[in-house]
Amino acid sequence: MHILLITGPFPRPTFIFRMALALAERGHRVTVAARNRGDWSRFRDALPLPPGLSVRYLLPESGLSDPRRLLRLLSGLLRYVPRSPVRAWRLFRGCASWREFVRYLPFLSFPSPDVIQFEFLVTATLYPKLGDLIGVPTVVSCRGADLHMLEQRPPEKKAARIDALRWATAVHCVADELAGEVNRLVGRTDRVFVNRPAVAAEAITPKDNYGAAIPKIISVGRLEWKKGYDYLLAALARLKRSGVAFQAEIVGGGALFAELRFSIDDLDLASEVQLVGRIAPSEVLDRLRRADLFVLSSYEEGIANAALEAMAAGLLVVTTAAGGMAEAIRDGVDGYVVPVRDIPALADRIERLLIDPALRERMGRSARQRCLDAFTLDRQVEQFELIYRQAVEANQ
Amino acid sequence: MNEPLKIGVVVMRFPVPSETFIVTKIVGLIDAGFDVQIFANASSDDWNKFDILRDRPNVRRRVHIAPPFRPLSKVLTVGTLRLLRTALTHPTDFLRFVRHNWQHRRENTPGFLKGIYTRLHFVGQKLDVLHIEFDTQALTFVDLKAYLKCKLLLSSRGSFQKTSVLDQFPDAPQVLYRHADGYHFISNYLHENARRLGLPGSIPTWLVEPAIDLELFNPIERPPRQAGDVFRIVSVGRLAWKNGFEFAIDAVGMLHRAGVPVHYTIVGDGDYREAAVFAARQWGLLDAGIVEFVGVVPRESVPGYLQAADAMLHISVEEGFCNAVIEAQAVELPVVVSDAGGLPENVANEVTGYVVPRRDPAAAAEKLRYLAENPALCREMGRAGRERAVTLFDINRQVEKFGALYRELTALGENE
Q1: Which residues of B touch A (CB under 8 A)?
Q2: How far, in Å, CA of A176 to CA of A182, rounded?
Q3: Do B278 and A262 touch (CB under 8 A)?
Q4: Which top CATH class is A201-374?
Q5: Could you report the per-residue pLDDT of A133-172, keeping only the tens digit for each?
Q6: pLDDT tens sequence across B300-354
Q7: Which CATH class for the B231-392 domain?
Q8: Across residues A336-344, what is the average pLDDT?
Q9: What is the mean pLDDT of residues A226-242?
Q10: Could you tell me where the DSSP H helices lie in chain A?
Q11: Does domain B6-211+395-411 have CATH number 2.60.270.50?
Q12: Mean pLDDT of B97-117
């Protein structure tokens, strides 16, 4: 099959890179069309790309005061227009603005795929006509915030997202909960598929020492409001006040760095909680293995890849019930699931685990097994193949 | 001796509605005979939002604005002309300014050329006091004290630790403390906080709380609320992280879940709106019409929102000092605040309202519920609040305090 993946930046985020690679390795032809040039420095060891995988960058539509971007646009026009001048002219006449023309133009020259996959709902809203333009079925991925925040977007953005959920040949959701949201928002259940994220658990060596005297709590994620770090810190402050010993580290960068640093100091947690900042993926893995419990205090999520990675490293997860998290973590088995925005509940589950190393070990091993059973890359790729085939059949 | 003191006040913009306390203070000082000059980084479009400025057209002439910094086209045209004009009209001052910037190019944050350009509006000024209203933005100005040959006063209006300044310049507070001749705090909390950051005891400090407009924020006669009527809660403030709106919405959500008839109005807007709206939606409070986001309203409409409410909720996670809480007390509202930063200083606990632990929405919900069930207590606390506001936060009192501060500061070291 020839799959055209349309995404924002590339190669980051990592899960999209991994997906493209896995599809190519299974013998599919994969063309990635990315709207932004990402940072390749952390992906050097994956080079050269397998023969089935090619990456093309789309043309810039904004920021043209930057001469490099302007040059990329001009050279793109010179490259694409002469290849199919008649179709380009027709496209130009059919477009409402030059931006729209520039957005669609490269696709006229790409080899025709069997299926288009939009990696994000927001990306799909930019290309409502693409499926018809090149006569190919479309699959749109919903990953969490795109649906959960939809109703509070400005009206025109909300409408464009709703439209995309309707015109997509198939909708891919990373959790049952999101499929439920699609149904609630647009009343669609037809060709709405759930394919949960995956983690390469077999490639990760799990931790084997569960007996830390002072257990270490770890949380990994972008420092933004959705992750609920203010609630986590409130819970940790309660634990400290009640005399429980622990260490904690928060890994990730983001808009709330200074605010969280202030909070840690303000809540007298400076000797317990470390704000690590953004670090390389391999170092994240090391820190996961050295930690004793993973906490996800989010109130908005799809299924957090960071939590899956922690589980693969043999770490139990205390999570809120945000989005599809309860589909990944079985309450009382692989960790605990608490209601969103519930500081006492979060503090209570963390405390239970802090004082019980045997429980941490049992849940940690169970979490790892859950990844090996239910969140493998093979399963994910096979599911995608199924979704693509159904989209192609539906289009015929 | 009879020359009025020349005070240079440094702000980012002037006038700004969210910094009304600075406008009222400056107008009060001018009326009291001080020669106040205002130095702003950018111009403001909000002049007609202030009645007190409309009556005093000459304030505009006291505002000196920095040359435009972007876009580049403006720097090359307007900016270059400003540079030439300043160099030609004040040749000796300008040369001295260039020399100053060269000498201080390493210790001030803009550096040599940027230092000249971005601070051009100070050339040729003669001041007794350079007063930087927000110390967290002071790093780019403190060296000017040497050029202007004046005393340097810094105001601390918010915690340094929560700003990103420290990421870039970890020793920023130490630089400020090295240059400052005096430090003004708006709350004891901020004073203690500065001590924690290393403010030396040798720098004189003053505590002057902001004042509020007691005429604008006035209680109205209303039919008494009965226990069981909808309890109307209000918050006024920027939808910013520090104001803790998610916890406030949690508290209201808990009240609603407990069956208390409640309505919550949030006046203000900001970059944390997305998070606050999400919280309200997640609790099901937005669709039910229980939480209402009214956005930014003109200043003169704020008292109306307070007068229509039964209590104010303000459970910040960080706060230097909160004018909105004082204004609510002036309108005879009982207030429920958190113990973050300077907030406990803004309320007489159990007299004009309640102070609850920060990041504890359940505790706030409990106090709100108690107030909802005791209308007589609300009235009593409201009256005590008005009295407190009138005694402590009067504008004339504030202007007097600042006048005294400036005089004391300029007198420092004169006997040596």
Answers
A1: 159, 161-164, 166-167, 241-242, 246-247, 250, 253, 272, 274-275, 277-279, 281-283, 317-318, 340, 359-362
A2: 10
A3: no
A4: alpha beta
A5: 899 999 999 999 999 999 999 999 999 999 999 999 999 9
A6: 899 999 999 999 999 999 998 999 999 999 999 999 999 999 999 999 999 999 9
A7: alpha beta
A8: 97
A9: 97
A10: 14-25, 67-80, 85-94, 98-109, 121-125, 130-134, 145-148, 155-167, 176-186, 229-241, 257-266, 281-290, 305-312, 325-328, 343-354, 357-374, 377-395
A11: no
A12: 86
- Answer whether B162 sits within 8 Å of A151, measured CB to CB: no
Q: Residue B1: what pLDDT?
A: 47
| pTM to 2 decimal places | 0.89
**Chain A residues within an 8 Å CB radius of B340:** 266
Mean residue pLDDT across chain A: 94
pLDDT in tens, B45-91: 888 888 888 888 889 999 999 999 888 888 899 999 999 999 999 99
Q: In whole angstroms, what separates CA A375 from the centre of its chain?
A: 14
pLDDT at position B52 is: 84
A310, amino acid identity:
A
- State residue B20's pLDDT score: 79
Q: Which CATH architecture does the domain made up of A2-58+114-198+377-395 adopt?
A: 3-Layer(aba) Sandwich (3.40)
Q: Are B342 and B320 in contact (CB under 8 A)?
A: yes
Nearest chain B CA: its distance from A295 CA (Å): 18
Among chain B residues, CA nearest to A148: B278
Answer yes or no: do A258 and B167 touch at CB < 8 A: yes
The pair of three-digit structure tokens given for residue A163, joined into one six-digit string = 């439209």
Q: Three-state DSSP class for A30?
A: strand
User: Distance between CA B95 and CA B103 in Å, rounded?
Assistant: 12
The residue extents of the domains of chain A are 2-58+114-198+377-395, 201-374
So what's the pLDDT on residue B409? Answer: 95
The CA dihedral of B87, B88, B90, B96, to the nearest 10 degrees, is 40
- Per CB-CB distance under 8 Å, the chain B contacts of A259 are 162, 241-242, 318
Per-residue b or e along A217-249, where b marks 16 or more CB atoms closer than 10 Å to that residue's CB: bbbbbebbbbbbbbbbbbbbbbbbeeebebbbb
Query: HSE (CB half, 13 Å, CA atoms) of B211?
Result: 23
**Fold agreement (B6-211+395-411, B231-392):** yes
Specify the DSSP class assigned to residue A130. Answer: H
- Paired with B37 in beta bridges are B8
Judge: A299–B279 Cβ closer than 8 Å, yes or no: yes
Cα Rg, chain B, nearest whole Å: 23
Domain boundaries, chain B: 6-211+395-411, 231-392
**Section A236-260 average pLDDT:** 95
Flag whether pLDDT at A11 surpasses 50: yes
What Å distances lie between residue B287 and A258, B281, B290, CA to CA?
Answer: 33, 7, 8
> Do B340 and A266 count as a contact with CB atoms less than 8 A apart?
yes
CA distances from B259 to B174, B231, B252 (A): 52, 11, 11
What sign does the CA torsion over B301, B302, B305, B309 have? Answer: negative
User: Of how many residues is chain A composed?
Assistant: 396
Which pLDDT value is given to residue A45? 81
Strand partners, B312: B234, B335
Mean pLDDT of all residues in A245-249: 97
Percent of chain B at pLDDT above 90? 75
- State the Cα–Cα distance between residues A188 and A205, nearest whole angstrom: 41
What ipTM score was computed for the predicted complex, to two decimals?
A: 0.93
- Sheet with A247-251, strands from edge to edge, namely A273-277, A247-251, A216-220, A293-296, A316-320, A335-338
How far is A143 from B288, CA to CA, in rounded Å? 27
According to the model, what pLDDT value does residue B2 have? 62
Contacts of A263 in chain B (CB under 8 A): 317-318
Q: What percent of chain B has pLDDT over 70?
A: 98
C-alpha distance across the termini of chain A, in Å: 15
- Give me the sign of the Cα torsion angle A19, A25, A30, A32: positive
| pLDDT, average across residues A43-55 | 88
